[in-house]
Design a protein that fits this description.
This protein is of the alpha/beta class. The protein has 26 helices and 35 strands. The chain binds adenosine-5'-diphosphate (ADP) and zinc ion (ZN) (2 copies).
Length: 830
């Protein structure tokens, strides 16, 4: 070969800048090593990490000493070239290290710190003709259970042991084992088979005769043989069908009889590996027949997709978007392509999985970070290894944001459902990426198409449609022309004066709920705060209980009778007496979901209530259970935070109450009007989906607010145009790019000093407007002081170059020793 690569640049799973270069030891230079394969490398004094090869080359690096790769883990790449290009883009766009992206991208089983263990398997003899160094190693290994490469290096006092290890492995005198293999434990089940002595037709007859005196044993034998016969006829049986358990269940005997037969040498036991991924059936139905409005939208999508890489499907809630996706998915599958279906929230995957599996059966895999790592690993491996378009392959992946990292082979389409949701953005840790935007990049890299779907598009997305960057298809009516719910607004200030409020409920809301309950219909109450009250205050002296570690007031939780911090989890017992003035005048203000639930239980005593918020859904199971009970109408009133607004499809919801619209709208953020509109419209969309027109009641003290008006009229366009105008005026996206830099440290002075210096140096950059440093809304969290700098980067000022310069300024700060302890967090597109 002309240019045998001598070095590899690797990505380490650490927050270190850039790639690191290692030498390829001689014996491997001609091996199948390539970019995307994993290797283990030493890093730091005594650590070994699994690194991914980014590229191979023969340029001698400038550093003094280049270390050797320790071992090769893969014969074929586990990460493909285009995946690594997505990583490159992510680390440069979101200003984080390639290692942070790598860390987020791979399931743990593929990236854990690894220690290669070397074990002797054969004693060498004279004809093996070992060299001195090989001899030396074998002596070190003799009598040990296995040593790691680092231990071997230490014991033998030499570093260059890799070539000897390689030669000994090739001659099968030693073997290497990766701890990685142990991290991922395949699921095994105990199985049985006939021992050799009894295999064969004659032997089985003989065995029958021998066992004829024990009915139980005969039953076991017969059940086993039946199962074997079944397997021969059918190919879809898994190892489970011959499992110990299956056999004794079929024979209806206890395990002890089978145990005895194993002892007698009739059966042998062995362990068989089975996939963790459930084996799924074929889909049981075709996609539904589309209505003419849906068909028209589908045709439009096709023509828009022909001209654009990205198309927005803007359709009101319940217009039947999901059914349209089904048709599109089927088309891509028929063309041998894969589909990625992204959802903003793990919780939503349950309903969607069911819907997809009904049609596409076992081709659907679900992938998100809350899944056990071993399952994620299996999905990764299957996608990497499978031939695409084949039957039985995983051709549809339903996932939350981390699914953009999967190794697709033939990705044709990405659907980003509820594209406006801000949970697509990862906040912590880095990479702080937006899954929608990353999906668009991913599509560009694999030449796939993207559909963004929502009833309430993100302002930036809609702007991209208006400027022609994205295609646009709109659906204005619900499926079957179901009416959108009627939205009514209650002015709570007026109502309070007229004594027409019952706790937090207006008279209109109370009577509407009563009607719904009488008709056997359901109700959703939406309040965007959890807990019981928003804050507690002493009426005498104004004292407010606050968190010790954060700059926020504590929120009372009645269930536990404690005050809790929603930022750090700190809690303190609630007392009736003010610790400052000693009077008994602590009052609670505002209300959260917990209080709402209590009030509802008093106002509607017969109703079955449930609460859906972070406090009641700590586990995936509890979330699913709550939703299922509501779906089955085992609950009449569901009280919840924005969790109830997410694309769930309920059939029997008559009334939706939006308890406190003001809290949302007054939140100090440039997106708060947009977010309030989206939230209120989405929650409203839960009303009246199948049976008759729903009713939405918005309680506010600002009934004339334009956002409320837009929700009432379901008028996205008016919201869009007023918001766009505001953003143009004040310079917010889409008219500029935002970047937020947060500085964090336990010493307030240090944070103040460093943030001021950083802001000063950033001020000098052309094309940037620097705002701050300022304390964020909550300026201390978990004992750490925070300060924010907001940078507006003008459009057309060369984003890449500007970011690089900002990066340099930050690096200049962190280079200074006294300032190093301050954590600097960069959030692009916050
Ligand atoms: P969206 O995704 O726009 O909110 P969905 O696709 O979930 O809307 O449709 C809303 C409801 O209407 C669902 O229960 C769905 O099964 C039903 N639906 C939509 N289109 C059809 C159709 N063509 N035939 C039968 N049912 C449909
Ligand atoms: Zn007091
Ligand atoms: Zn706190």
């Amino acid at each position: 070969m002309a240019n045998k690569p001598l070095f590899v640049d690797v990505i380490l799973p650490l927050a270190v800048r850039g790639c690191y270069t290692y030498r390829i030891p001689e014996p491997w230079q001609a091996s199948s090593l390539q970019a995307g394969c994993r290797v283990t490398v030493p890093f730091g004094p005594r650590k070994i990490f699994t690194a991914v090869i980014r590229r191979m080359h023969s340029r001698q690096p400038h550093v003094r000493e280049t270390k050797d790769i320790i071992s090769l883990l893969d014969e074929n790449p586990v990460v493909s070239e285009w995946q690594m290009r997505l990583w490159d883009w992510m680390s440069s766009y979101y200003m984080c290290t390639p290692g942070e992206v790598y860390h987020a991208a791979l399931p743990a089983a593929l990236k854990l710190e690894s220690e290669t263990v070397v074990r002797a398997i054969l004693k060498p003899d004279a004809k093996d003709e070992l060299t001195a160094s090989e001899q030396h190693l074998m002596e070190r290994l003799a009598g040990s259970e296995g040593l790691t490469i680092l231990e071997l290096q230490r014991k033998s006092g030499r570093k260059d042991i890799m070539p000897a290890i390689r030669r000994l492995t090739e001659r099968r005198l030693i073997e290497l084992e990766e701890r990685i293999g142990e991290r991922y434990k395949p699921r095994t089940i105990r199985c049985i088979r006939l021992s050799d002595r009894w295999s064969g037709t004659e032997q089985i007859s003989e065995l029958r005769a021998k066992l004829s005196r024990s009915k139980a044993k005969l039953r076991i034998l017969n059940s086993f043989l039946d199962l074997v016969r079944e397997r021969e006829e059918r190919t879809d049986l898994t190892a489970e069908d011959m499992s110990w358990q299956t056999v004794i269940e079929k024979a209806q005997t206890g395990g002890s009889v089978l145990q005895a037969m194993v002892r007698e040498g009739v059966f042998e036991t062995f362990n068989s590996t089975v996939p963790r991924l459930p084996v799924l059936q074929e889909g049981s139905r075709m996609p539904v027949h589309l209505s003419s409005m849906q068909q028209e939208a589908l045709d439009n999508l096709h023509s828009q997709l022909a001209a654009h890489q990205v198309v927005l499907l803007h359709g009101v809630t319940s217009s039947g978007k999901t059914e349209i996706y089904m048709h599109l998915i089927q088309e891509y599958l028929l063309r041998g392509m894969q589909v990625l279906y992204l959802l903003p929230e793990i919780a939503l995957t349950v309903q969607m999985t069911r819907r997809l599996q009904q049609v596409f059966g076992g081709q659907v895999a679900v992938y998100h970070s809350k899944f056990p790592d071993s399952e994620r690993y299996e999905i990764w491996k299957r996608l990497m290894e499978q031939e695409t378009g084949k039957e039985g392959g995983l051709n549809i992946v339903l996932g939350a944001r981390s699914a953009v990292f999967l190794p697709f082979k033939a990705l044709g389409l990405i659907i980003v459902d509820e594209e406006h949701e801000n949970s697509y953005k990862q906040h912590n840790p880095a990479p702080r990426y937006h899954a929608r935007d990353s999906a668009i990049m991913l599509a560009r890299l694999c030449n796939a198409k993207v559909i963004l779907g929502t009833a309430t598009p993100c302002i930036e997305t809609y702007y991209n449609c208006k400027t022609g960057k994205y295609g646009l298809v709109e659906m204005r009516d619900r499926y079957l022309n179901l009416e959108l719910p009627e939205v009514r607004v209650v002015d709570v200030r007026k109502a309070r004066k007229q004594k027409a409020m019952h706790a937090s409920f207006s008279s209109l809301l109370v009577s509407s709920i009563d009607d719904a309950l009488k008709n056997g219909e359901q109700v959703i109450l939406f309040q965007n705060r959890r807990g019981f009250s928003l804050y507690t205050e002493c009426h005498e002296c104004g004292w407010v209980p606050r968190c010790r570690h954060c700059d926020v007031s504590l929120i009372y939780h009645k269930n536990s009778n404690r005050l809790r911090c929603h930022y750090c989890g700190y809690s303190a017992p609630m007392s009736r007496i003010c610790p400052q003035c000693g009077t008994e005048t602590l009052r609670m203000h505002g209300f959260g979901t917990e209080r709402l639930e209590e009030e509802a239980s008093l106002l509607f005593p017969g109703a079955r209530l449930a609460r859906l918020d972070l406090d009641t859904t700590r586990s995936r199971k509890s979330y699913e259970d709550l939703l299922e009970r509501f779906e089955k109408h085992e609950t009449d009133i569901l009280v919840g935070t924005q969790m109830v607004s997410k694309g769930l499809d309920f059939n029997n919801v008559r009334v939706v109450g939006i308890m406190d619209a003001d809290a949302m709208m007054n939140f100090p953020d440039f997106r708060s009007y947009e977010r309030s509109f989206q939230l209120m419209s989405q929650v409203s969309g839960r009303a009246g989906r199948k049976q008759g027109r729903g009713l939405v009641i918005i309680q506010t003290s600002d009934a004339g607010h334009p956002v409320i008006g837009a929700v009432v009229r379901n008028d996205y366009l008016s919201l869009y145009s007023t918001q766009l105008e505001e953003r143009r005026q004040f310079g917010y996206p889409p008219f500029c790019r935002l970047m937020e830099i947060t500085l964090k440290h336990a010493k307030k002075d240090l944070v103040d000093e460093v943030s001021l210096k950083l802001a000063e140096s950033l001020h000098l950059l052309p094309g940037c407007r620097v705002m701050g440093p300022e304390y964020p809304l909550v300026s201390r969290v978990s004992g750490q002081y925070l300060k924010n700098i907001l940078i507006k980067i003008e459009k057309g000022s060369g984003l890449e170059a500007t970011k690089a310069k900002i990066g340099e300024k930050i690096a200049a700060i962190t280079d200074k020793k006294a300032w190093q302890p301050v954590r600097i967090i960069i959030n692009v597109d916050p």
